[in-house]
Each structure stands twice: as C-alpha cells, then as structure tokens.
Write a structure and sequence with these properties.
Layout: E1 3-6, H1 7-20, E2 26-32, E3 35-42, H2 57-68, E4 73-80, H3 90-95, E5 102-107, E6 110-117, E7 120-124, E8 126-129
Parallel strand pairs: 1-3, 1-8, 4-5
Antiparallel strand pairs: 2-3, 2-4, 5-6, 6-7
C-alpha cells in the first residue's frame, strides 16, 4: 500500500533541498502510520555537509520527546542529494538501521521514499494527500 504524503510536505521538502543547496538538507518525517503530514527540519551537523548528512542530535531528542507527549510520531528521516540521484547512496545503505523507518530522498526536483528493512532499502510508492 502506498504511503500518503501531504502536498504541503512535498512543497516544504523541495524548498528545504533548494535552500540548502549545495549542501545536504536533513530532518524528520512526522505523522501517523504511513501518512506523512509534517516535517521537522534539522541542522546538518556533519563536517562535510556537501556530501553527507547528520541530523542535529538535539532535534532528534526534541521531536521524540514531543511524540511521547502526544505530538506526531516520527516516521523517518529525509535528506537531499544535491549532486546525485533520488535513491539511497552506499553511505545511506550502510547507515540504515533496518527498523522500518521511511527515508525521503530529494534530488533534482524529485522526491522518492524508501523503507529501511532487514534486507536494506525497498522503494515505497506514495500518493499525494490533500493539504
């Protein structure tokens, strides 16, 4: 079954990638089940942000705390590939936890979704949901 992604989320992801270029943007995908209804942008704290990403640990702590207090659940993560393609890189594959999280990758004006599972990443189709 395809994931549902709010059109607002799509617009924000594309804007985040565009404004961060030539560095990678990153953040968290929020919602419920497989419905992504919001994002939480985070600072990319990796020492080489043009080629890699690392979500600011404080952003992770904050968003997981908010989820425990009744806020939207953390469904996964997003980042951009400023000079690449919208699919997991070898580095992405090595970092994936296989925990079922959704990864959104933004590149060249496209967004693709991937589910991190035991066998690695599997492409996850998605449909636009109303705003």
């Amino acid at each position: 079954m395809p994931a549902q992604v709010s059109s607002d989320v799509v617009e924000r992801l594309l804007a985040e990638a565009g404004s961060a270029h030539p560095q990678e943007c990153c953040g968290l995908l929020l919602g419920s089940g497989d419905a992504i209804t919001a994002i939480r942008p985070a600072r990319n704290v990796h020492p080489d942000p043009a080629r890699r990403f690392e979500i600011d640990p404080q952003a992770l702590v904050d968003v997981y705390r908010q989820a425990r207090e009744g806020g939207p659940q953390v469904l996964g993560y997003y980042h951009s590939h400023p000079n690449g393609v919208a699919e997991p890189s070898a580095t992405d594959r090595s970092l994936a936890a296989g925990d079922g999280a959704i990864w959104a990758i933004i590149a060249a004006g496209r967004i693709t979704l991937w589910r991190s599972g035991d066998a690695g990443f599997e492409k996850l189709p998605y449909e636009l949901a109303p705003r």
